[in-house]
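Lab manual, section 2.4: Encoding a predicted structure.

Procedure: take the sequence of the chain (319 residues), apply the prediction step described in section 2.3, and record the output as structure tokens. A sample record is shown.
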Amino acid sequence: MQPLLSGFSRSLLQNKVGFVTGAGSPYGIGRSLVLGLAAAGARAVYATDLSLGNIASLQEEVRAMKSDCQVHGAILDVTDEKQTISVLKEVLDKYGRMDFYFANAGVGNYVPLQNTDAAYYDKMISIMQRSFFLALRYGGQAMCNVSADKPSPGGSIVVTSSIAGVSGGISDISYSSAKAAVANMVKPGSVQLAASNIRVNSIAPGFVRSSIIASTRQALANMQSSANTGGTSTNKTITKEEASKAFDATLGRLASDKYYFDRIPEPEEIASIGVFLASELSASVNGQNIVADNGKTASGQADRTIGPIHAMAPLSALG
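Recorded output:
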């Protein structure tokens, strides 16, 4: 397990149950969220995705932590209303409660505007925005189910947004539109669910080391295969090595150690914020979009306009 996630107390999410979408990658925010939730003492986490090829290794990693958390793999097309309801009912039938829902599934593939057709745009919006609506609508209802060990409604819904939602130069119009939309659904979502004691927040990372490039390419290939074969596709499992290679060849080149805001964080850095938002440590945090980009959006043009940024001298060096 990633060292950052090992510091959580196992009483933090004791007896809590929920799920994470987009958790089937070999390396990314979704997988790290499952590990972090398990480390914080969650009773059960449903790791959902279109492909479950990496779930066995995820379950093995959780067992290696000596955690009692039960990690269940579940096939889920996050755009499908009936599938979403079905998986939520499975959780409730088995555990009688739903406490956290991470709407994390997404795709990242830069397509220039002149090459973007309406069908592609609609698909991206469906994967990233419609899925969050389903999380609010049905995840919220699931959190209202009560049981002997959960006598009152409540829970935490968290969506993975992006700084692409507030910046025009991070990704394409489809991805940026979807991420802006989910960030702006958080406030009305938090109001609509307030009477049910359900908090709604979003995390907006910058670039994060993950398998999103390789996974998106495979997902798009599967979509094309399904279209060509009348609905049949093969969900190939992406390895961590393939994921790292694809990332380094594209977004990895943007990393720099010159300034803090130019570093590219590991996925567990974002997942740790998610665990915080799932727990009572964040009881007063509701309706917020938490930017976690190392200060990238705050930096603006940085040294392009203000000149080189020099490191501070130690206090002992002052005269």
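Check your result against the sample. The domain at 17-305 is CATH 3.40.50.720 (Rossmann fold).
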